[in-house]
Design brief:
The structure is a homodimer.
Chain A (H helix, E strand, L loop, with lengths): L3 H10 L7 H8 L3 H9 L6 H14 L5 H8 L4 E6 L5 H16 L3 E6 L4 H12 L5 E5 L5 H10 L3 E4 L9 E4 L2 H14 L4 E7 L5 H16 L3 E7 L5 H14 L5 E4 L2 H14 L8 E3 L16 E3 L2 H17 L7 E3 L3 E3 L5
Parallel strand pairs in A: 1-2, 1-3, 3-4, 4-5, 5-11, 6-7, 6-8, 8-9
Antiparallel strand pairs in A: 10-12
Chain B binds a DNA duplex through helix 3 and helix 5.
DNA sequence: GTCGCCGATGTTAGCGCTTGCAGAGGCGTC
DNA sequence: GACGCCTCTGCAAGCGCTAACATCGGCGAC
């Protein structure tokens, strides 16, 4: 009985048979400090020892305990990233690119989704901070006071992405949604449309979409055009786009061009037009946002705005890595712009 | 000069002003052990102390250091999840549901994407294990030997999802893709189609799609129908579906019904048919897989197979939580089935 | 030849928690 | 009224690393 206890104890203590840095050190005939250095900054360890250590790591299939390392160094090679939704492929692509770039430098992403709620964002930020992350990346600029306070106190790089403006918490990488709306309004105006509409969904939560709408309406009106706004309460799905179009033609049958808050909505509108025999762009011009996958091949192909999805992720990763390594991270605020892609629909 | 050093030291030691459990303990007038217990198992601490501790935590805005906790307890409240792609909304929804459910119980997801590569999966598993996760969730059943070995050695719950079969590593939650293919073949046969086709993309990597195709072809041929397989090298995007359709009508102009490897591909095919004036389902029946957002509102609406996207996530979370808490986790292998949704396209 | 300096390695003291064990009351039982 | 037992709390020993500091040669400069 007494002989068994230590074994059970041992089992509890460290997984079943996971080796520790001390095991590697013993096998390589060095101290743990040297193993640690060989892992973190190989260049300061002599090639001979490095070789012996690598061999020992391989033989033992050693996997470092990042929690121990993180605790000792008071930071982790983790970046907390919060996007509104994972289902939406806008952000997915940004996250994929960012993740790949960071992973290449040994950093890991902890990804969460806020569901467009700043309360959920607050909870996520709190739980990420509990991991002493190397940085936090948030979508947008709208955060709770407590979130802001915690972020500031954490004293780590904070990136706000997918928007543009002044006085960010720390870094800001994105583009101006207001300008997107303006550009679409100008685009329609230039093509002679004078009765315009913006159709959006869940605009009370998706503030970026709302801002695109605001920019669109402001610019439309400034140029003397007539512009209406249709806001739907549902989530921005394909079906919602169809509903939006139905409301549009019913309430404002004379509208000549409509800016849908994103391509998913616009696709729904496209289908609904087809169903109702509304000629696009003949009778109604349509523009979306996102330049999603299908925009280039739908019938008709969809005029839209292409956001710098991948570039946002890449620039953030680069900026962050520069900060981590103490090199020049470049400007704190980066406006990456966007492209209006003119296709058949308008 | 000398007076400054300790301050800098202090700064390095523990963020700028992040409070520790010891601070909470002092303020509440208890030991850190009691604070720890109040956090982990509140029911074993007296209501009075619990109240004082909660108050102290609130006043100090205390956020526990999970790395310290994880190190001390040799485990973390983290679940590593690996999906092939984030862009694909199939998995996103599963992950969202699973994440919400787990978050409710205090567990966090570390999400990564393998890009359908088992080498990347191997690297991700290794880096997740370095965090002593409470469990690992993988997509599919195809893993490298080393991944398997590490998973087994880690001695934690492992879930393979989105597939079905025998002898899983540990738990398996999903459905049979082969059966999906069979069901679609039967569906087409029942409607009198005798010349069938499966069109897929990147089938060498997306093994689930390949299996749907295999099941489809096997069942078609078993029922005496003629069935061809078109495999495209590109990624499964909307445009790829169009390319697939073009090849299909060129190489096999007499095909009456086609099963596209997923809805995204099928949508591309739908557009291409429209462009070419091919009547759907009149001249060609089309079926997809996934029941994505647009399937119910496209023109024509898309016949497809609905996988239990959300249920997979929910069941995994429940099974895992049961394992964590030592209660009955239910069967290790769960076949959640699927629904064939008949719509206009076929 | 001696000195000092620098690069490579070892020593050691924690990082902030968790948890086994011990101790301290409080209460029911005989 | 003493005893045992149970509940609640404190004590203290780590968890597996990192990094500041100490140490030890070797080598160039004078």
């Amino acid at each position: 009985m007494t002989a068994v206890a230590p074994v059970a104890e041992e089992g509890r203590r460290r997984g079943l048979n996971r080796s520790r840095m001390a095991d590697v050190a013993r096998l390589a005939g060095v101290s743990t400090a040297t193993v640690s250095r060989a892992l973190r900054r190989p260049e300061i360890v002599s090639p001979e020892l490095r070789g012996r250590i690598d061999e020992a790591i391989r033989r033992l299939a050693y996997v470092p305990n990042l929690m121990a390392g993180g605790l000792a160094s008071a930071r982790s090679r983790t970046v907390g990233v919060i996007v509104p939704s994972l289902i939406n492929s806008f952000f997915s692509e940004t996250v994929e690119v960012m993740g790949e770039r960071l992973a290449g430098a040994g950093y890991q992403i902890m990804l969460g989704h806020s569901g467009y709620s700043i309360e959920r964002e607050e909870a996520l930020v709190a739980s990420y901070l509990a991991w002493s992350p190397a940085a936090i990346v948030l979508t947008g600029r709208h955060h709770s006071r407590l979130t802001l306070r915690r972020l500031l106190e954490a004293d780590i790089p904070v990136v706000e992405m997918w928007e543009h403006g002044e006085r960010p918490v720390d870094m800001l990488v994105g583009f101006s949604h207001r300008e997107v709306g303006r550009a679409v309004a100008r685009h329609f105006s230039e093509r002679g449309a004078r009765r315009l509409a913006f159709v959006g969904a869940a605009l009370d939560r998706d503030l970026r979409a709302a801002e695109r709408g605001d920019g669109f309406l402001a610019e439309s009106r400034a140029s003397g055009a007539q512009a209406v706004r249709i806001a739907l309460a549902d989530r921005p799905q394909v079906a919602t786009g169809g509903v939006g179009l139905a409301r549009l033609v019913q309430e404002h049958p004379d509208v000549e061009a409509a800016f849908f808050s994103n391509d998913v909505m616009a696709l729904g509108a496209l289908f609904e037009c087809q169903r109702r025999g509304i000629a696009v762009p003949g009778r109604l011009r349509l523009c979306g946002f996102g330049d999603l996958d299908f925009a280039g091949v739908s019938v008709p192909t969809l005029t839209t705005v292409r956001p710098p999805r991948r570039e946002i992720g890449q620039r953030i990763a680069e900026g962050l890595l520069a900060r981590f390594e103490g090199t020049d991270p470049g400007p704190a605020v980066l406006d990456l712009g966007f492209d209006l892609i003119e296709r058949e629909s308008g």
